[in-house]
Each structure stands twice: as structure tokens, then as C-alpha cells.
Amino acid sequence: MILVSSCLAGMKVRYNGTDSLDVHIQKLVEEKKAVTICPELLGGFMTPRPPAEIVGGTGEDVLNGTAKVVESSGNDVSEMYIKGAYEALNIAKEINATLIVLKENSPSCGSAAIYNGSFENRKIAGNGVTSALLKREGFKVISEELISEIFLHEDM
User: Of 2, 107, 127, 153, most Cβ neighbours within 10 A?
Assistant: First the structure.
């Protein structure tokens, strides 16, 4: 079973109340080959919510307590991001996820790049909090940017 970010399946759960629909992912969900999650909602956030970025590092650093997730207002929301990551991990284990496709650049879900914490639309290499935890636990996590490539090479 595949675990995917809810926003990629067309659910309007992003911080600003929008989605990031990916038709390949939507198809997987419709065919019951994928289950959706939103780590931020699992952590207790509502939609819409203030934008947040990781300050002082990456998702790994947040998990290690050396960086934090901060809203644009300056409010530290690290604990909610960590809670959501662990809830996502529980779901990944429950469904025995063989692949996890998460929204790139997100402070939760980024699997190759995240925003750098300046709120100036600048990105750095790194994982979001949920991606970092899932990878640490041995799950294969990729971004939606790679899903079409997989569709071309594998029969999902």
C-alpha cells in the first residue's frame, strides 16, 4: 500500500486552504492503492493556518531538538509537527506502506528540499519533520515530483 500526502490527492488541507493535486496520486487513491495523510492535521493544526518553516536546520534537526518549526508570526509549533510525524509513522506501519509520496518543500513532508526558515521563498536541501522520521524508520519516501517517473517504469 502507498501512503500519500492528502493535498496531492486533491484535498484542500494545505496551510492556505488549497490542494496540490497530482492526477497520478489521485488515481492511486481512487483505485484504493493509496491512503492519504496530512501530518499537519494529524498534529492538531486546522486549515487554513499560518505558513511555517524550519529554522536552524532540517526535519532531522527538529527531531533531535536542535532546530524548530516556526510560523511566520514567530510562534514555535515544533511539538505539533513532531506529533503529526509520529501519527503518520503509526499509519505507515499500520498499512505496511511500501512507498510514501509526500509534498515537496513542506516543513512536514519535504523529502529533498524545504524552505530555509527565512520566509523569503528560499529553499535548502533537506527533509521535513515527517519525511525525516519515516526515513529514519526505514520507509522509502519520495516527492510527488518523482511519481510520474515511477508510473512510467512500474506497474503500480
Answer: 107
Half-sphere exposure of 72 (CA within 13 A, CB side): 9
Partners of residue 119 on adjacent β-strands: none
Rounded-to-integer distance, Cα 12 and Cα 125, Å: 26
pTM over 0.90: yes
Domain coordinates of the chain in residue numbers? 2-153
> In the 3-class helix/strand/coil scheme, how is the chain assigned residue by residue?
CEEEEHHHHCCCCCCCCCCCCCHHHHHHHHCCCEEEECHHHHCCCCCCCCCEEEECCCHHHHHHCCCEEEECCCCECHHHHHHHHHHHHHHHHHCCCCEEEECCECCCCCCCEEECCCCCCCEEECCCHHHHHHHHCCCCEEEHHHHHHHHHHCCC
Give dist(CA 152, CA 37) in Å, integer: 24
CA dist., res. 72 & res. 113, Å (int) = 19
For 107-122, write each residue's pLDDT tens digit: 999 999 999 999 999 9
